[in-house]
């Protein structure tokens, strides 16, 4: 159960794979396909986040793993055992529900003990006490859920699921109802508990910061499929689609024509300016593409000023908007071809602030740029409508 | 913008006296309380008359104080028999209608079936029909079925279950529909089988609704006169007893029963209220 | 994504069957039986039995004999409903918006008196309105009533009794509707230059209409069919239709006539309710 070996996600054989594995999983509701032919491997002991906008299929995926929905097609295996059609109460998987779903008629102690009692455990009392201690709620044991604060209820929900030592713990937007400050501390708390108990966690969220803070692996979902999956830093630094580039943080995407492909570098003509992109960061097949660069990677300077980025200087920008936000200054710069680019400049004090209307030059180090396929919508994933 | 118009208009920001302002501010509440007092006037009379020492059975007024009526409630001829009939019918009707109505409520909220809208109509109509129509149609049925001579306890019970079902359905359905279905999913997720989920989560949470429906059924059954009177034959329920004595002179014991009914219902309702208030008190 | 999924299959039907059978057998079939009885040959009796002759003349007979109590019932019912609406609205509004922490207590107090027997309460009104009672004496003293004026055995007593007895049927739906209104809407209307009266008629009243519609129906229907108030507080001049039907059944043993009157009453109410609900524009009420 909790004897977690560090297993690589590439483990070959389905029989010997001891993690959670989804293969060709599809879920349709009437005409709407919520999850479309999804493959996913979650190694035992890992903490994975399913990240995506509302309606992307992440919650449906989670509910299929929990057994609360049955897949239309495909299979779900856990430690080599097929659980696709197992009832929720037959599988070693527990869920922390979005609204907690604490039983209002039972006190905290009985809520936490619920799963153990159903399985006729002999050590209910000891386990419940340990668990309440872990989530620091020992003194609240005899209160009803309605008497607890949101953060406390959240911890009860976590304890109630964890106490069963599930093979996989599912968290469905567990922090959505908490205020920002509490959310931050609960993120670290859950992360700490996961490291402590060493269970597999699958966390569903639409909050990219939450996903990146907590999980070792983030899977970005969009329209029923996983767009990209990897460590948070890899996803952020090297997005493979416009959706990931826009949904995870913010990106400037500039239309460009590919001039040459060398072994290590691809050269792109971007409205008359030649820029280069490392080959391993190039995800475009045709001769056109979107050159992507994160706003904080762009350097801004007066015309002719020496910028710490040899080779790729783009002249002719005009500052159209300046927002001073304390840690950084955010500029919008209109480029000669009409597009406005976003630039975040750290307020190190070493640079002067530019005013709207000033002419500037932009530059970035080639190794930070990435190239995306031109067939993708440059605005995909940029409207983050948080529907909580 | 608005200055142009407001300068021409003289606005009188009248304050008025403090007492006047207080009354204006609380006017609606005061009127509401007066209406509430109005609903209690007859109750006051009932309680008062339960201690009345009447000089004549024909003159209905307060003549003097006595505990006699409270100490000898069954002295009123036939009253305790009628009361016991009413309680028996009330309990059986409550049991029957609560079971049947709760089953329907579960089907309506939790199950899919053909004919949902006609089902809703079937539930709504008995609540929207005048009692005299329901009573007379039942009587017409009993007579047509050749049971005209056997009217009594069982025909009353049939009628009472019939008109209570709809109220049970509506009450339980409201409670059930308000139930967060995540709770049942959470129970299933925590290894409860469907049976365990029902008895440990669903039923305890719906139970207050069922209890409320049962209390409502009992009081509807206990208090019904018009339908009962048409289908009672020679059986006498408490309301029928009161109806009978209203023509001949009312024994004061009737008011004792009225007072007890009032006290019991207040105890039940206030008890439930205090209970739920105590539960939520620690919240804030 | 997690809205209630209604289960398919036979369990739903199994749950429905007992209750539906009961309502079918003892509510729907009797209505049919009532219509059939209303067309029987009136020359039979409940001992000799009746024969079905499609005797439509039963209807014209009862209308010509009893149109007065029929109209009177509708009129008294309408008046009582109106008074209930006025009193009930004030009470429901006060509970919803002005009662503060006493809200639940006030709701309990509204319901509590009505758990005491309907008949016993009506009898105590009889005492209150009696000829030498406090109310009549006071009204005579201030010359609202003449020296030999009385309340008992007048339409006033009957309508007052109906209003009193059916008040909770009005208050509860009204309260449910008014309580849902966001008080900020009323603040917004006063911010937008509506005085309290305009604010009430333009905001509160329209938003409480669903409660007004269901409250008036729940009051009007039983009030029209009631005869307890008319019999205990009124005189034969205030006789209502329920009383006629009751005595045609039990005293006169004229089942066809009684059934015909019942059918007419039911039909009148159904037509009025449909018309009213459509006019009020809340068809989703049913």
Structural class of chain B: mainly alpha
| Sheet of most strands of chain C | none
Order of helices and strands of chain C: HHHHHHHHHHHH
- Which structural category fits the helices and strands of chain C? mainly alpha
Overall mean pLDDT of chain C stands at: 84
Distance between the termini of chain B: 46 Å
Shape call of chain C: globular
SSE arrangement of chain B, N to C: HHHHHHHHHHHH
Helical content of chain C stands at over 70%
Roughly what percent helix of chain B? over 70%
Give the number of DSSP strands of chain B. Answer: 0
What is the name of the CATH architecture of chain C?
A: Orthogonal Bundle
Biggest sheet descriptor of chain B: none
Report the top-level CATH class of chain C. Answer: Mainly Alpha
Shape annotation of chain B: globular
Rg of chain C, alpha carbons = 23 Å
CATH architecture of the largest domain in chain B: Orthogonal Bundle
Quaternary assembly: heterotrimer
The poorly predicted ranges of chain B are: 1-7
Question: Explain this structure to me?
Answer:
- The complex is a heterotrimer of chains A (388), B (284) and C (286).
- With 388 residues, chain A is an alpha+beta fold.
- Chain A has two domains: 20-237, P-loop containing nucleotide triphosphate hydrolases (Rossmann fold, 3-Layer(aba) Sandwich), CATH 3.40.50.300; 250-373, Beta Barrel (OB fold (Dihydrolipoamide Acetyltransferase, E2P)), CATH 2.40.50.
- Chain A is built from eight helices and 21 strands.
- In chain A, the strands form four sheets. Chain A has a six-stranded mixed beta sheet with strand order 6-7-8-3-9-10, sandwiched between helices. A six-stranded mixed beta sheet of chain A has the order 13-12-11-15-21-14, with no helix packed on it.
- In chain A, strand 7, helix 5 (180-197) and strand 8 form a beta-alpha-beta unit.
- Chain B has two domains: 15-68, no CATH class; 78-250, MetI-like fold (Orthogonal Bundle).
- In chain C, 71% of the residues lie in helices and 0% in strands.
- Chain C has one domain (65-285): MetI-like fold.
- Mean pLDDT of chain C is 84; it is low at 282-286.
- Chain C is built from twelve helices and no strands.
- The two termini of chain C are 28 Å apart.
- Chain C has helices spanning 11-38, 57-98, 103-111, 118-128, 134-141, 155-179, 183-191, 196-207, 209-225, 228-233, 241-250, 255-280.
- At the B-C interface, helix 2, helix 4, helix 5, helix 6 and helix 7 of B face helix 1, helix 2, helix 3, helix 4 and helix 9 of C.
């Amino acid at each position: 159960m909790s004897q977690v070996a560090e297993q690589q996600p590439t483990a070959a054989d389905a029989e010997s794979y001891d993690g959670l594995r989804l293969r060709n999983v599809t879920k349709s509701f009437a005409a709407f396909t919520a999850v479309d032919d999804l493959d996913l491997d979650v190694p035992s002991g890992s903490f994975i986040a399913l990240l995506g906008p509302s309606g992307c299929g992440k919650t449906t995926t989670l509910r299929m793993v929990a057994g609360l929905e049955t897949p239309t097609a495909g299979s779900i295996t856990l430690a080599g055992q097929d659980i696709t059609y197992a009832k929720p109460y037959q599988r070693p998987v527990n869920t922390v529900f979005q609204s907690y779903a604490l039983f209002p008629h039972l006190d905290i102690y009985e809520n936490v003990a619920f799963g153990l009692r159903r399985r006729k455990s002999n050590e209910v009392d000891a386990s419940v006490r340990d668990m309440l201690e872990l989530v620091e709620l020992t003194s609240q044991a005899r209160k009803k859920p309605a008497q607890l604060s949101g953060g406390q209820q959240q911890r009860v929900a976590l304890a109630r699921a964890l106490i069963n030592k599930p093979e996989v713990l599912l968290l469905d937007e567990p922090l959505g109802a908490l205020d920002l400050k509490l959310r931050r501390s609960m993120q670290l708390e859950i992360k700490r508990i996961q490291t402590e108990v060493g269970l597999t966690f699958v966390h569903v969220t639409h909050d990219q910061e939450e996903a990146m803070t907590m999980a070792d692996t983030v899977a970005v979902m969009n329209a029923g499929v996983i767009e990209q999956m990897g460590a948070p830093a890899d996803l952020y630094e090297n997005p493979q689609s416009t959706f990931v580039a826009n949904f995870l943080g913010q990106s400037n995407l500039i239309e460009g024509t590919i001039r040459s492909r060398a072994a290590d570098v691809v050269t792109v003509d971007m409205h008359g300016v030649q820029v280069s992109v490392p080959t391993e960061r190039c995800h475009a097949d045709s001769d056109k593409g979107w050159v992507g660069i994160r706003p904080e990677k762009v350097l801004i300077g007066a015309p002719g000023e020496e910028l710490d980025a040899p080779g790729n200087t783009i002249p002719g920008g005009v500052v159209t908007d300046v927002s001073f936000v304390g840690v950084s200054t955010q500029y919008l710069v209109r480029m000669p071809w009409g597009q406005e680019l976003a630039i975040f400049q750290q307020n190190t004090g070493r640079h002067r602030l530019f005013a709207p209307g000033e002419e500037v030059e932009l530059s970035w180090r080639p190794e930070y740029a990435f190239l995306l396929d031109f067939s993708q919508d440059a605005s995909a994933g940029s409207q983050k409508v948080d529907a909580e | 913008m608005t200055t142009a118009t407001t300068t021409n208009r003289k606005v009188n920001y009248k304050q008025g006296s403090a007492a006047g302002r207080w009354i204006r501010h609380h006017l609606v509440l005061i009127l509401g309380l007066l209406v509430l007092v109005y609903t209690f006037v007859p109750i006051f009379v009932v309680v008062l008359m339960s201690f009345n020492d009447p000089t004549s059975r024909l003159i209905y007024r307060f003549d003097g104080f006595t505990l006699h009526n409270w100490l000898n409630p069954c002295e009123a001829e036939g009253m305790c028999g009628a009361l016991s009939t009413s309680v028996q019918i009330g309990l059986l009707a409550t049991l029957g209608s609560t079971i049947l109505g709760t089953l329907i409520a579960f089907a309506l909220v939790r199950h899919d079936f053909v004919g949902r809208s006609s089902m809703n109509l079937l539930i709504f109509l008995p609540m929207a029909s005048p009692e005299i129509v329901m009573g007379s149609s039942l009587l017409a049925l009993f007579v047509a079925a050749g049971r005209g001579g056997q009217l009594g306890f069982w025909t009353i019970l049939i009628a009472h279950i019939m008109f209570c079902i709809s109220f049970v359905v509506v009450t339980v359905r409201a409670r059930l529909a308000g139930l967060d279905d995540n709770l049942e999913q959470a129970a299933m997720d925590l290894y409860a089988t469907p049976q365990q989920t029902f008895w440990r989560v669903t039923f305890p949470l719906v139970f207050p609704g069922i209890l409320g429906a049962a209390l409502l059924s009992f009081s509807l059954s206990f208090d019904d006169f018009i339908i009962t009177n048409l289908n009672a034959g020679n059986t006498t329920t408490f309301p029928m007893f009161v109806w009978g004595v209203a023509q001949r002179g009312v024994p004061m014991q009737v008011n004792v029963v009225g007072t007890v009914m009032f006290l019991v219902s207040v105890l039940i309702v206030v008890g439930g209220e205090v209970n739920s208030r105590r539960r939520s008190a620690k919240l804030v | 994504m997690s809205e209630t999924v209604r289960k398919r299959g036979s369990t739903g039907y199994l749950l429905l069957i007992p209750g539906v059978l009961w309502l079918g057998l003892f509510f729907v079939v009797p209505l049919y039986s009532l219509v059939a009885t209303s067309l029987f040959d009136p020359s039979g009796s409940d001992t000799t039995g009746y024969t079905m002759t499609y005797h439509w003349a039963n209807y014209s007979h009862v209308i010509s004999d009893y149109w007065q109590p029929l109209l009177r019932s509708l009129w008294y019912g309408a008046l009582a409903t109106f008074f209930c609406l006025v009193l009930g609205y004030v009470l429901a509004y006060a509970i919803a918006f002005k009662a503060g922490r006493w809200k639940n207590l006030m709701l309990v107090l509204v319901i509590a008196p009505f758990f005491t027997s309907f008949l016993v309460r009506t009898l105590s009104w009889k005492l209150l309105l009696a000829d030498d009672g406090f109310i009549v004496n006071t009204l005579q003293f201030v010359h609202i009533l003449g020296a030999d004026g009385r309340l008992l055995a007048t339409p006033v007593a009957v309508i007052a009794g109906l209003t009193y007895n059916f008040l909770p049927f009005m208050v509860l739906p009204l309260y449910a509707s008014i309580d849902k209104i966001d008080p900020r809407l009323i603040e917004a209307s006063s911010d937008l230059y509506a005085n309290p009266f305009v604010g009430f008629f333009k905001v509160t009243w329209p938003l409480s209409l669903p409660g007004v519609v269901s409250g008036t129906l729940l009051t009007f229907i039983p009030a029209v069919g009631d005869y307890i108030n008319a019999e205990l507080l009124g005189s034969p001049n205030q006789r209502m239709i329920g009383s006629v039907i009751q005595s045609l059944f039990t005293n006169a043993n004229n089942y066809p006539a009684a059934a015909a009157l019942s059918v007419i009453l039911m039909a009148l109410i159904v037509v009025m309710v449909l018309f009213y609900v459509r006019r009020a524009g809340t068809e989703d009420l049913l």
